[in-house]
Prior knowledge:
The structure is a homodimer.
Chain A: H1 9-31, H2 58-75, E1 79-83, H3 89-99, H4 101-105, H5 113-122, H6 150-158, E2 165-171, H7 178-183, E3 197-204, H8 220-229, E4 233-238, H9 246-272, E5 283-288, E6 298-299, E7 302-303, H10 322-333, H11 337-340, H12 349-352, E8 396-397, H13 399-413, E9 420-424, E10 442-443, E11 455-456, E12 461-463, H14 467-479, E13 483-489, H15 497-510, E14 522-527, H16 545-550, E15 557-560, H17 565-575, E16 582-586, E17 592-593, H18 598-607, E18 609-611, E19 626-631, H19 633-649, E20 655-660, H20 678-685, E21 691-695, H21 700-706, E22 715-718, H22 729-735, H23 740-750, H24 754-757, H25 759-779, H26 784-787
Parallel strand pairs in A: 1-2, 2-3, 3-5, 4-5, 9-12, 9-13, 10-11, 13-14, 14-16, 15-16, 19-20, 19-21, 21-22
Antiparallel strand pairs in A: 6-7, 8-17, 18-20
Helix pairs in contact in A: 1-2, 1-3, 1-5, 2-3, 2-9, 6-14, 13-17, 17-18, 19-23, 23-25
Amino acid sequence: MGPQATLTDRELHSLDAHWRALNYLAAGQIYLTANPLLAEPLRPEHIKPRLLGHWGTCPGLNLVYTHLNRVISARDLDAVCVWGPGHGGPAVFAGAWLEGTYGELYPDVGRDLAGMARLFRQFSTPGGVPSHAAPQLPGSFHEGGELGYSLAHAYGAALDNPGLVVVCVVGDGEAETGALAASWHADKFLDPVYDGAVLPVLHLNGYKIANPAVLARLPEGELDELLRGYGHEPLYVTAAAGEDPERTHHDMAAALDVALDRIAAFQQAAREGGGARRRPHWPLLVLRTPKGWTGPAEVAGVPVEGTWRAHQVPLARVREDPGRLRQLERWLRSYRPDELFGADGRPRPEVLACVPAGDRRLGANPHANGGRLLRELPLPDLAGLAVAVDKPGTRLHEPTRVLGGMLRQVMADTAERRDFRLVGPDETASNRLQDVYAVTDKAWQAETVETDEHLGPHGRVMEVLSEHLCQGWLEGYLLTGRHGLFSSYEAFADIVASMASQHVKWVQTARTVPWRAPIAALNYLLTSHVWRQDHNGFSHQNPGFVDHILNKDPQTVRVYLPPDANTLLCVADHVLRTRDAVNVVVAGKQPCFDWLGLEQARDHCARGLGIWEWAGTERPDGEPEVVLACAGDVPTQEALAAASVLRTRLPELAVRVVNIVDMAKLLPRQEHPHGLTDREFDAVFTRDRPVIFAYHGYPWLIHRLTYRRAVHPRIHVRGYREMGTTTTPFDMVVRNDLDRYRLVMDVLDRVPGLAVRAAGLRQSMEDMRHRHHAWIRQHGEDMPEVAEWSWPG
Amino acid sequence: MGPQATLTDRELHSLDAHWRALNYLAAGQIYLTANPLLAEPLRPEHIKPRLLGHWGTCPGLNLVYTHLNRVISARDLDAVCVWGPGHGGPAVFAGAWLEGTYGELYPDVGRDLAGMARLFRQFSTPGGVPSHAAPQLPGSFHEGGELGYSLAHAYGAALDNPGLVVVCVVGDGEAETGALAASWHADKFLDPVYDGAVLPVLHLNGYKIANPAVLARLPEGELDELLRGYGHEPLYVTAAAGEDPERTHHDMAAALDVALDRIAAFQQAAREGGGARRRPHWPLLVLRTPKGWTGPAEVAGVPVEGTWRAHQVPLARVREDPGRLRQLERWLRSYRPDELFGADGRPRPEVLACVPAGDRRLGANPHANGGRLLRELPLPDLAGLAVAVDKPGTRLHEPTRVLGGMLRQVMADTAERRDFRLVGPDETASNRLQDVYAVTDKAWQAETVETDEHLGPHGRVMEVLSEHLCQGWLEGYLLTGRHGLFSSYEAFADIVASMASQHVKWVQTARTVPWRAPIAALNYLLTSHVWRQDHNGFSHQNPGFVDHILNKDPQTVRVYLPPDANTLLCVADHVLRTRDAVNVVVAGKQPCFDWLGLEQARDHCARGLGIWEWAGTERPDGEPEVVLACAGDVPTQEALAAASVLRTRLPELAVRVVNIVDMAKLLPRQEHPHGLTDREFDAVFTRDRPVIFAYHGYPWLIHRLTYRRAVHPRIHVRGYREMGTTTTPFDMVVRNDLDRYRLVMDVLDRVPGLAVRAAGLRQSMEDMRHRHHAWIRQHGEDMPEVAEWSWPG
């Protein structure tokens, strides 16, 4: 932008005052524990004992906060802002305090001298606030701790919010991350008709922690090509150290006006229709400011402002060194705090002239506290969707395909409301959920050709081959008060392990923030799972996401392994109703025996685990001699096959079959809200009988969940032990010792005296395993008896 | 490229024959189980019972393979190729077979009819090869299963290999992933003097699994801007369905010649010096080919070639449907196999005319079997680097800073050889390893300004704020026969959890491939760990990477938690010598007590765990009454403080202190090669005494490792339980019940009768915890007695 007299002198004066106030408040948070308004000369005891925080990015963020206030007020704009740069905490907490939202939500940190002192003291101190945007920050739905997710969150928030502008400050450090780099292409999925707009502000302040940022060190032309290549029209605002900020205020105001005019025009054109659809080249701001702008230019003769040395605390040892203390005071007074605040700490009216009112304030916009906007999701009656089960184990269905019917109905029932989205990395159809395409398309704004199918500008299925973008979209969508489901190949969920962990932390922390309303659960459907990667092989075999998630906050995380189609429906119905939760559902897409009718499935899922009397040989009057437990569709099939062998060959053995859907049931009650009491657990698993547990994933997870139970020393678990390869379904279970024959042998080996008594059966099980090996070597496929096996219910 | 007569007719004929042969061999792998050369008309029994595989990407990959052969031969080029597109297995296995390398390494799959039949049969069948590039593939150092890592691997391979050209085919699907998107900026780190070149080939074949690819659906100008924005000069080769491939052969040959000429010129200019350094705009090929090119144009009236329907098996049900069988036969015969192969299955000479000889063949280049090139890393004598320890617990050092001294020496000693790199996401200095900058710079080819420090074009420290790129660089570097270390904040290692898992799978599989030579270990240094995120807070607290890695192949994974500076040195010395391993080392960067002198540290680390007699109160003649175990620097400090309290206040109690460095020692011997036998384990931990275990991470990991041990029911673990926040170091341990006072109480509660006998001590421990809470509320920092505590050794 060239210099333009966009602003009146009065506006300029007021904006600059607001910005100086934010800069003062940001520096104050890093340094001061007392004397917040410099009523007296600074003394060492006014300085925090430990100087923590990150000054470098703050003045630039403050500039954005100030200028967003102007355009929101001027245009009555419905806008939120995602603060991407790490450690911008002092800036954004200052912004919320100055506009008054902070004090409204935290009355002891009000907009007066005592509140200012508390604002300063709480920053980066025990029991206080962290050094980046976080759940405690009014107006934020994004945590600035782990970098890279800002832009994906912003796009997720904009989806299905046609009146909303989501400004997103992208740090030049975080721009180097994979998640952020992938997110630039999210503009090919944003619908100018039904979605809102995203306005990225690429904040180039030159340095990360200790290194220059790549994007800040490209020749200007190369950066411009890159951003145009991402599909944007870049608008540039550049500030230089030492220069009067007047020109920057004018440039920033002009650039924001151009950007918002463009956005409005694109949306109007698209919404009024007529003419060919053409993807807008949405505007983007490139804001180049010196790192640590307006802070100390030099310290002890070494340049600080504009260098990586301004990243954290630009002026250290101020308590110890009187010269440094004076330098800090000069710096703080350079903002002329007495012009900005009264002696009572209240901001003067001209400082607040640009601040919008009520819910238009960035800290008060309800979209950033999405639970406030959340509506109950309309869920269909499962009766019309469930599969009929006359007899367990006689018919086969693909569980996820049955779920697809349910999701189709949810999509249809939310067609007007548009508050449900399905996201996935190019696998919705591969995961057999394609029924949804009968009622909605895959969102797509890039070019199309005649042979494309199910692509549409207004679709609500989001497919992109970036798990990060899928996860980020969905998080942003949920955090702004909507519903959704992420379907993925099980193995590749670990790609977003860290994002998932951060989301759990957000939910866990938000639960302690009284003014945050609960949001809809983040639901994962992990399918195309470890046991059925017949040709993809070892690289696609990884059931570890469940282990990862179960390490996190027990109030938030849940894991479900429905064993068939109807239980998957019931689990889906449940998880889509939950709040402030992260639910992981693992289910197969391959044909799988139906075990339970809908009513049985409802009961079973409501209990989370249960004894399947019809599958065992237990006598009603006695305790079982052995428990065969199973969790997951393939282990359930193998366990039930083993039970069937035992029933036929050793009818006198009292076998109890237990199926687990809700894995947290295994945990002690005091460790997870779903956990069973010891009494409940013992009633199902006994206290002293051998338990053979066929589990879907890594076997030691079961030990980690059950080690406090009385029966634990007798639990023997079979599961996936990284014995993976390209092979048939049955060979996979044999390689990992999870097959029916091995499970029968495990029973024989663990029930006292049985191995001897049933030596013939044991031998025939060994023989079957040999037969399997020989058969597969010769035929390259599974033996007919396992391929066509049915449970003789 | 416009049409140019780059090739003579004879060359053209030969290249086309080679390409047709690859296409034939690729299709054959998907379909045929017998009659490999169509010696007789196709019958259903010649067709595989289950049709698996991905045809869509193959013809394009084949074109690259064919044309790389030409330029390698013509220029005597030292080149390898990374095959990024997922599921290109049939193409790349065909390439290796046709050039002869496959048969040399797998004599039963030789270049004859029987070998061809086996090549076809083994594809995607049990015990065979997977559907993508994998360790079994000669010439590959990249697994094509999980997408997104190709370009990072390619750059890693090119580092410090000045004579090497690494061609990297990037699929348009994988280009959407975060890891790949971030990798485009790797060109800002590639040194034209000491590094080789990377030639990306962006393969736009239009579709992923079920969706168009974003990059394939950009307007041409926008794509061009994007690629120029990434710093490249794009060269375009476009093929259309149905068109004679002659023009494409000419274009491809011309484009490759231009690209390789440019590369040579850039390198020559940089290496001959003179003139200002200017970052080359390295060439990049955009290869646009129809998906499933040369396959069936239509099936049952529906377009297939050029659509997503060609992604997997373009022609299904060929066994069942005679019409389809005929269509398959017509398709296969369209490659004129009888012109390409003799009746004995041997390729005719003109087919092989372009194939380079010996180690120049893509499948034989030694860089792709890096262990063959690996040299022992020169490691310094630790005596000159270790810290002096007269008495345990009296002096403090920052362990990673001490390690920095060692790494500096390694950097210095490899200055000429250039086979060691340090990678990290902008944290080398933050992690206190900055001593290395005394001998090498941070690699940097983008713009610089005067205030920059330690940036240089030839540096061997790689810093970029993308964990994916760091990991990918290092993997590529190791897989091509060099050494390195990845240092990261502990919390953010999970960002590459899935990459790490795939690397373990590669190593595990490669170990079973007899011709693959062992490579250097992938070493992680996880620091800035969970207990010391005083101001970063909750978002930076995550010790779960250890749990993740310990789920993987026990032959490959190891986890070390050295408790002080000298043990960190010994562990580093060890892991840098290991092969075919993934080592995770967790160590602090904050001042930490020195416990062991160098010789003690060597012994302790060699054993992996041990009793610290000097810290306990055990009598030489008896068994201890309680075991205080600890793993990790902070837990060790707390456990030793607890031991010191017990020693002073309950001198008659026989306490054994055990420190664990090598976590796998806790596993049973049969489950991990480092595991202790039960006898060894019991000798350290006893069979029946209470064990209070202070652990660095999630406490249940210890249960998962020890559940088979006799003493397990008596093991009580304290660790991190997601009770995280912004707070002081001691408050963190208190919040998670890992503090010295809690550990003392745990001892009192678990040694029979002691709680009553030592009720006063128990109360004073409670009092200390109360005092802590009150103090921190008032002062915002830790009590002096914990901040300044020293072990009264």
